[in-house]
Design a protein that fits this description.
The chain contains five helices and three strands. With 131 residues, the chain is of the alpha+beta class. The chain has a three-stranded antiparallel β-sheet. The longest helix has 22 residues.
């Protein structure tokens, strides 16, 4: 592993700031899940929002992940990026942004795809639940 890649996502894996505790008492409006059986990885993204529809503001984002460390790092980064944004703005987050921010290798790209799939589902559910 290169030093840049180590520093880009290893610290997020070792101390994620957005990992959800099962006992968290928050009203979650959007929940999205995705898995990659080939990589034995699973990600769940949960969103708490104010107001409704695509203009709803995400006030909290959290994740639960199972799999390699890069899945945890991608999940944490995505949750950080969507907090305090509207659902519409959060939909503009893309795979390339994750790859660049965390300096992902080609073999780690699946983790970003996994997390984006979970996020897309969570955003859709949050929008419809509040709309």
């Amino acid at each position: 592993m290169s030093r840049d890649r180590d520093s880009a996502w290893l610290s997020r894996f070792l101390a994620p700031r957005h990992a959800i505790a099962e006992c968290a008492i928050i009203q979650w409006h959007g929940l999205g899940e995705a898995d990659t059986p080939g990589e034995d990885a699973h990600c769940r993204i949960q969103l708490a929002c104010e107001h409704g529809g695509d203009d709803g503001r995400i006030v909290a984002a959290a994740f639960a992940a199972f799999g390699p460390p890069v899945v945890v790092a991608c999940s944490d980064w995505v949750c950080e990026q969507v907090e305090d944004r509207t659902i519409k703005d959060a939909r503009s987050l893309n795979l390339r942004a994750i790859e660049q921010a965390l300096v992902l290798a080609a073999g780690e790209r699946y983790a970003a795809l996994l997390v984006m799939d979970a996020l897309d589902m969570a955003l859709a559910r949050a929008s419809s639940n509040l709309g």
